[in-house]
Amino acid sequence: MVKSYYIDYKGNKEVVLRAVDEIQRLPDVLKASYSSFQGKIKVSYDKDADELFIEREIATILLNGQEPIKIVDKEGIKTEKANRLNLILCGIGLIFYVLTYYFVPAAFQWIGYLFGLILSGKVLIRKVYIGIFKKKHLDENLLIFLAVVGAFALSYYIEAMLVMLLYLAADFLSWKAALITERDVSETLHKEATTAYKVTNSLVFPIPLKEIQVGDTILIRPGEVIPLDGMIVEGESNVDMSPVSNESYFMFAEPGSSVESGGINTEKPLHIAVTKPYNEGTVNTLILKIKEAMAKKSVFSKTIEKIGRWYLIIIAILALLVVFLGPLITGMPFLDKSFIYKGLVILAVSCPWAMLLSTPIAYNYALGLGKKIGLIIKEVGSIDALGKIKTLFFTKTGILTTGVYKVENVIPYKNTKEDDLLSYAAVGEYRSNHPIGQAIEEAFEAGDGKVDENLLTEYTEERGKGTVAVYDNKVILTGSESFLYDNDIDVYLDEEGSLTHVAVDGEYVGAIQLSEEVKEEGAQVIENLKKLKVNRVAVLTGETPMGARSALADLKVRNIYGDLNIEEKVEKVRKEQIRLKGKTVGFIGDTISDGPVMVASDVSFAYLRGSLDKVTSIADVVLLQEDLNLVYESVSLGKRTYSVIKQNIVISLITKVVIILTAMFAYVGTGVMLIAILIDLAISLLTILNCFRISQSVRSFFTKKGE
Asked: Which of 190, 505, 681, 698 is 20 to 30 A from residue 217's alpha carbon, by CA?
């Protein structure tokens, strides 16, 4: 089997050759070679080799060598080479124009101009061909092509080349903006794991996830994500299940414990016997649901694309009306040359250069500013979605709060003493790794309390509900109100905040009141979002509405929706989209379980965290630091960019209307086309300068960071 890896490296060839030597020594690799001319490394390996493992090792060797060498997409290389070729051809075309002007007799100059124009316009001709014969639709490329042909047919050779050069500049800038976005995303976001470490006869070796069978034993080291559902056969450790749960949740894993894929091993190595194949695991099931939703989600169109479709239709109709109806209205002969001339002039001067040049510059500039302040916007269409955002949904834990709890009050019922109630609660939460349980344990130990593990004879935990412990022959239940009701125990306290209720031997004895720490910047960020005309800031959470309101009281969030599962959160987002009628809805997620909600929203946000690769792959905007201010800054950047683009479009359209009306109703003589194009160029420069006003949206952020 042979595979080629295209690389992006301009340094010393010897560095690449040393890396190729290392690749050559990999198991199952038969031969490795490097072609500097093609910029690729060619690797031959055994047909039975683990292809995914070899690819991963090759990437590691190239990135961790004397100098980092990046593997790049083959199509990206082709596109970059094609754009370089277009620039070279454009230069040759210009040279032909100059040589023709000075050295070719006037009667034959059109031949030299035509040859130069064809060379320069290779990319335009190709796009028009693809649009008409392959995609079967008309776009702005056809309009520009007709403008060039019209100008040339009227012997306006210089104007034809000017139109072509303006188009090539706009096309190059659009490609550059897309390239910068793609590179930023690929360099910043991690790839999800594709292998697991299988344990066989005390030997550990990597194997593709899809080849792991039910019953195989895999090794999960501290800090690694559990890739497959299974049962612990060796080792004890705490596993962070928050990436796949709807809440902050830890579980203690020991031999006999079942674990779901997606959790993060936090402490010690674990050996897990696989109980479900890759395609049936918890994470893969979630990913399949997310992919189904993403396939149905339409990409948010750029403003320029929407305007461009209508603009093309209107200009084509105007040109046809002038050519065919003009002579009839004025009494001139049908298809009079002067009106054909007017129609061609309209096409020649109607190209929306101000939009085509300034819009990619605005997007490009916004993407660069975003990266500077710590966020990656994956698609330029997401900038428009940010600009139109009116409702922003937050998930609570991990986004608005830190996930850290503290005991605020110990509330005994009837004759129970406070110290006894706290000790009962500490016993009930002794083996729980939920942040609430840890807070209760810390409060108990702070008062010199200690649980005697020898007296703890039985312990069971129902995830997200509560625990049952047998301690010193007493049956102690701790958990939510519904958990106690499910065990036929009446709850008599109904205080505000997050409550952990406690019962002993079937009798209710009181509750522990806790509070969750909110992020200190949260209140100001929410206030600032409202100033940006984000009219509705709301919270979607799986926790009780009362507990969530108490935890978020300092943030002054009016709309808090609790007791929601994932499907209900998705429904909330969709109802809001219907209510807004064209404006956009954003959602800030934290775990893979938030994936369906993120996909349902028009624009989604996520923090970049090593353990949450799949979440960042779903998000439209990736926040590189855990700072809520970045949410505000991304919305501010989007709204500012969207506003500037709309201003540029209005300026461009007004200019076009004036020029086209002049062409329709005034005398059009020699030089009018050139004057119109020069006016359009001046307006284009004005709109380009206007793009730099986008930076005003982030100046306050830089100022604050510098303080």
From this structure: 190
